[in-house]
Amino acid sequence: MHCCNYRWQVFAWLGLHLLFAPRLTLADGGAIRAIEKSEGLAISVFTSPAILTAGEVDISVLVQDDQSQQSLADTQVQVTVIPREHSYLAERHAAVEELAANRLMKSCHVQLQQGWHEVEVLVDNKGRRGRVDFAMFVGPPLGRAAHFWPWFAWPAVPIILVTINLAYRHLRSNSLAIINRRIVDSATHDP
Question: Helices 156-189 & 2-24, crossing angle to 10 degrees?
Fold first, then answer.
């Protein structure tokens, strides 16, 4: 009987973590957009938010030594964003530690319009140079309501937890009733 209680708790706990934990803990640096290796450098580029919409976008760059996988702090990083339709609006930004949520990364904040953008990341670490090129699509801006949805959706969390608890108690009481019936039936059939 104890095994069933434990099993339900594990499934409920894992389910809640899979649904809510990655986004609520902000444990990620964003969506990975590109990974390149050149001249002994491993360069990873992340963007946040993961689904890009017009407005402010965080572009973070992690530079590591290719062999040791150690983060290289003394690195200069330049990020150039070029809108495909309006290449004359290209913007160059220096990525710095102060803007990064993760201190191992360098980051810059860029205002992007809807459409395709070419991104060029240039890295310089004591004479070792690397370059990463990739394209990304930026969707239309979110409506005003999209910024407030967590405030309207949070009551769903306790409701879901109460529902899981009630279902668990119902299943547990049914299994206890079945066991009790079996015990009573076996006692009445013994000669």
Answer: 170
Integer Cα distance of 60 and 48 in angstroms? 8
3-class DSSP assignment, residue 169: helix
Q: What is the pLDDT of residues 111-133, one digit of tens each?
A: 999 999 999 999 998 888 999 99
Helix (H) or strand (E) holding 45: strand 41-48
By CB atoms closer than 10 A (0-12, 13-18, 19+), residue 187 is: exposed
Q: Which pair of structure tokens corresponds to residue 76?
A: 């200069």
Whether the CB-CB separation of 43 and 35 falls below 8 Å is answered with yes
- For residue 161, the cross-strand partners are none
Q: What is the model's pLDDT at position 26?
A: 46
Give, in order, the Cα–Cα distances in Å from 75 to each of 124, 158, 181. 6, 46, 72
Query: How many other CB atoms are there within 10 angstroms of residue 85's CB atom?
Result: 9
Q: Is 47 helix (H, G, I), strand (E, B) or coil?
A: strand
Residue 57: Cβ-neighbour burial (10 angstroms; 0-12, 13-18, 19+): buried
The residue type found at 125 is: N
pTM of the model: 0.63
